[in-house]
Specification:
InterPro entries: EmrE-like, YdcZ. This is DMT family transporter. Keywords: Membrane, Transmembrane, Transmembrane helix. It comes from Corynebacterium tuberculostearicum. The protein is mostly helical. It is about 75% helix and about 0% strand. The model has no long low-confidence stretch (mean pLDDT about 85).
Amino acid sequence: MLWILLGIFAGLVLPVQTLVNTRLRASTGTPFSSSLISFAVGTMTLLVIATAVTGGEFGISRAFGEPLWIWFGGLLGVVALTGNILLFPHLGAVQTVVLPIAGQIMMGLVIDHFGMFASPTSPLSLIRALGALIVLGGVISIVASPGAPTKQGDSAMALWLWRLAGFVFGCFTASQSAINGHLGQITGSPVSAALVSFSIGVSTLVMLNIVLRWRPRIERPEGKANPWWMWTGGTLGAMFVFGNAALVPQIGTGLTVVATLLGSMLGSVLIDRLRGARVAMRQVAGIAVILVGVILIRLV
């Protein structure tokens, strides 16, 4: 039971990280600059953890000669993290969490069915297909809820494009997880795989910021002092990655996914509530339905 509670706590980290990085963007000026800082902090955190866990033997050289896609996890992570920063002001915490989760689950089924990225093949069964339909039903219930917070001024078309983007970002996250999972097997440590992913993400973001001519600066939006916690997004992301790596050997992948998703959904509802947005019962019911679908997909 304690491990499951730790999984729920790890899941709570994700919506908090999105909120933190969104606040950081307000001070740095662009989503790519805030993503760079977040990835850099996360990389340093993972470097410390990986050094402690592996004793400095990261095993990265074992990945040389592997297919090129083995190094794409960090690139997909950049898109997913930056995408969440862009989504949050338009869709609120609940939809920013739920829509990528839906994409992650659906892409996960595709990856399992076809054995993509050297993953074990797990054909799509009737029960798993039913679970996927239930997840989609829960997502539709949430995004169609009158209480779903969205940015004022966005047209209906714009909102649905943002929602589609959230779903696609989730597909990227699922692909990243599969790639990093295989990289972790090659290096002998999932923490080393996460360190590689973050390092590639940092390198990508450095180049993007150079191309976009971002000059490091920290502003004070509306004259308000910058809170200390806006720098913690990278550490929170590293905690989530390390938490998953620690949980899977203890309770299995399926139960880890269910526990962390439950934590993410509960955290998103709490954040929207604290921000003053109205959380409708239809949204809460939709989250419960999604959880049922995830349980069918992962545990049955």
